[in-house]
Amino acid sequence: MTKEFFSVTPVEKVFEYIAGFPQTSIETIDLLDAAGRILAEEIVSNIDLPGFERSTMDGYALRASDTFGASEGNPAFLEVQGSVPMGKKPDAAVSAGTAMRIATGGMLPDGADAVMMIEHTSEIDDTAIEVYKRVAPGTHIIRKDEDIRINTPLLGPGRRLRPQEAGIIAAMGKTDIKVYKKPLVGIISTGDEVVEADSVPETGCIRDINTYTLSAAIHLCGGLPRSYGIAGDQFDPLLTIAEKALAECDLLILSGGSSVGTRDLTIEVIEALQHSKILVHGLPVKPGKPTIIAQTGGKTVWGLPGHVASAMVIFEIFVKPCVRHIGGTTMFSNNHYSIPAVLSRNLSSAQGRIDYVRVRIVEKNGLYYAEPILGPSGLIRTMLDADGLVKIDMNSEGLVKDTVVQVMPFQY
Amino acid sequence: MTKEFFSVTPVEKVFEYIAGFPQTSIETIDLLDAAGRILAEEIVSNIDLPGFERSTMDGYALRASDTFGASEGNPAFLEVQGSVPMGKKPDAAVSAGTAMRIATGGMLPDGADAVMMIEHTSEIDDTAIEVYKRVAPGTHIIRKDEDIRINTPLLGPGRRLRPQEAGIIAAMGKTDIKVYKKPLVGIISTGDEVVEADSVPETGCIRDINTYTLSAAIHLCGGLPRSYGIAGDQFDPLLTIAEKALAECDLLILSGGSSVGTRDLTIEVIEALQHSKILVHGLPVKPGKPTIIAQTGGKTVWGLPGHVASAMVIFEIFVKPCVRHIGGTTMFSNNHYSIPAVLSRNLSSAQGRIDYVRVRIVEKNGLYYAEPILGPSGLIRTMLDADGLVKIDMNSEGLVKDTVVQVMPFQY
Prior knowledge:
Two copies of one chain form a homodimer. In chain A, the strands form eight sheets. A six-stranded mixed beta sheet of chain A has the order 7-4-6-5-9-8, with no helix packed on it. In chain A, strands 16-13-17-21-20-18 form a six-stranded mixed beta sheet, with helices on both faces. The longest helix of chain A has 19 residues. In chain A, helix 1 packs parallel to helix 6 and helix 4 crosses helix 5. The two termini of chain A are about 40 Å apart. Chain A is α/β, with parallel strands linked by helices and about 400 residues long. The first copy, chain A, contains seven helices and 28 strands. Chain A folds into four domains: about 160 residues, 3-Layer(aba) Sandwich (Molybdenum Cofactor Biosythetic Enzyme, Chain A); about 60 residues, Molybdopterin biosynthesis moea protein, domain 2 (Alpha-Beta Complex), CATH 3.90.105.10; about 90 residues, Beta Complex (Molybdopterin biosynthesis moeA protein, domain 3), CATH 2.170.190; about 70 residues, Beta Barrel (Beta-clip), CATH 2.40.340.10. In chain A, a hairpin with a 2-residue loop joins strand 8 and strand 9. Chains A and B meet through helix 2, strand 14, strand 15, helix 3 and helix 5 of A and helix 2, strand 14, strand 15, helix 3 and helix 5 of B.
């Protein structure tokens, strides 16, 4: 058992490292499976959308000038030239003194420059209407390029595909898209005291929790988790399984090693991997100080603390952006809003480190309150009760009760 | 073309209807696939966790009373009885004047009641240490039931499984879990003007966008989308495909029908489905007023407006909670926080209806601003630029620039 000194790495530097990690390769998928995937190509508009002048109302296509002066007391009289069929070019044109029936989404006939809502008209007979209102040219019409103009850059690589992005790609006539492959993330739990979750632990042993928390977290941030089981605290078997996992995956997470002995083993194994370069050995954060980050031949290896809450917090703050980056997205893409909340108690912190405090978010009278969940980072209950994290900055000695803090809600 | 009068349904009533819809059946899955699924069973703690007294530090297990009076100048002297092996019951006990080496996560030996951090000790030789600090009983120890006590109710049906829930289930030794099946949601796009996304539209036609936006939205809220293609504006073929879809799916969405003619057709077809009961025909909201909700023999049918943004907004506000409810979750489960943001311009609204205004969220100087995206609800661009919705209440005439509004961010 040896003492240990961390030379901690500033967290900004960690994000710089992450931004430099290589991204996964590209695959083509069906647009119907686009949700949540990361686009890997440029989408430029190849058409005007909708592509023709469309009515946005049910009513009559007409010339606006024919309605000038029209009112309830003094209706304009127009001859009806038939109806615009949906999905077809109108077979007639509108000239002065005439109108055509048109439904929402119908194509404006030649000669017409506005649509009169049916509510402001009255049918005299099948071929004539009275109009009770004036409209300006362009009323209730979508111009042929009003939604999207041809040659407009729409989406680029790194964009996370929401329903609207899928919709716009469909509008371009594209039903196959290039996306980044989901990063395959290997997980190895370590520690002589860790046993399979489906076994009955001997006294002194504990079931493997981290494989399950990390698998779920990887899945929810767009990665594909793959468990390599549990490795004990011996160098050779751990190295063997780590080499196998690294050969198969884009990214490898070793979790465990809260004791100095196991931590020493983890770093030795990571150092022994081919082309290994240790980038980070210790972070100025709590929980999660003994975090390791390495690169080995273009792949990334994380050594996470064994304490269940520590591993989850480090995942949330650092590994998740890393998985997302490797999976093609920008590190802090959409849907990362912080929630202002009133802190329910004082929180103290040591200067020189960043604290990530687990909090519950409670709504009272339309206000959000952040209630810190205290307890050692070995307790999973503290994460179960938590809805997010509050950060206490490096240079702060703490946060004061009843002030508004920013909660980073868990994004799952 | 006929005039039409909606008898709109209050939105509270819609949520009451949704809460009454039957939920999907239950399936058993591997805990490694738990992320985002909805639990369908009770999980009660069957063990104390961790189950034994554990050290949270590397150091020495000892009796706190042996350290009373110890200081840098006056260290306590203790005999070392060997080391606690990880994952095993210690083979010795600690008595007065003795200590055992212990690593983080190790099991406390009998007789010991505290752990002294290694930093506050010094080895004299292999069998003796000096201790420079006092500790109280219980220091650096997790009690055997400190995380979870046996017979504690932990999770119940309807709970969405995050990484921490997966972890706690693993800790209970359970690696198969019962969850609600993902609701299978059928989608039919309607309208004579709508053509397949991978085809080249004739003049007057428009590619099917809604199938793609809805598929992605269904996927992202925990459903399984299934497209039934495009149906034209004829009663019999639409009824046939709707019957087929309803037979296969838990929920059916018809989208399209922005024109009165198509809307009439949609409601007629929904009415003609077996055991059909129309619950809602028109909502006091904008966009999306011509929304239809029906129940047919225990299944739910939605008629969404054809306008792409209208359909997406109605999905976000009403259909998403419906899919989630049918999929077993409570309607407004975790991760539904609103974001306070400064409104960048005045927004007017008519009394008697709820407006859902698309907004972009922009961060400036640490403050969020909500910038309304204006434009007809037929334009997909308005959704592409939006990050969420701002609600203008029924009895409000609008919202005022520079005031703080609550943005409902898109949850995808």
